[in-house]
Design brief:
- By secondary structure, this protein is mainly alpha-helical.
- The protein has one domain: lambda repressor-like DNA-binding domains (434 Repressor (Amino-terminal Domain)).
- The protein has four helices and no strands.
- The longest helix has 16 residues.
- The chain starts with 9 loop residues before the first helix and ends in an 11-residue tail after the last helix.
Length: 78
């Protein structure tokens, strides 16, 4: 999904890409991440692939806590 920086949905695309990057850095599959954060694998997949137009800050916070990654890492390149 190509999106312009001026679009309000831009933040979701970037955060989703950063979730994918961080997940891979931790050598986790989408299924394993979903298990760690108690979410459905479909949710993780949709967030990473920009299929969801919105998701909660709590979702990002939970990933941040479980992977022990500063929450600011998810907002890089915004």
């Amino acid at each position: 999904m190509e999106i312009n920086k001026t679009d309000n949905k831009y933040i979701y695309v970037i955060v989703g890409k950063n979730i994918r990057r961080i997940r891979k850095e931790h050598k986790l599959t989408q299924a394993k991440l979903a298990e760690l954060i108690n979410y459905d694998i479909g949710t993780v997949s949709n967030v990473e692939n920009s299929s969801y137009q919105t998701f909660s800050l709590e979702f990002v916070y939970i990933i941040s806590k479980r992977l022990k990654v500063p929450i600011t890492e998810f907002f890089k390149d915004i």
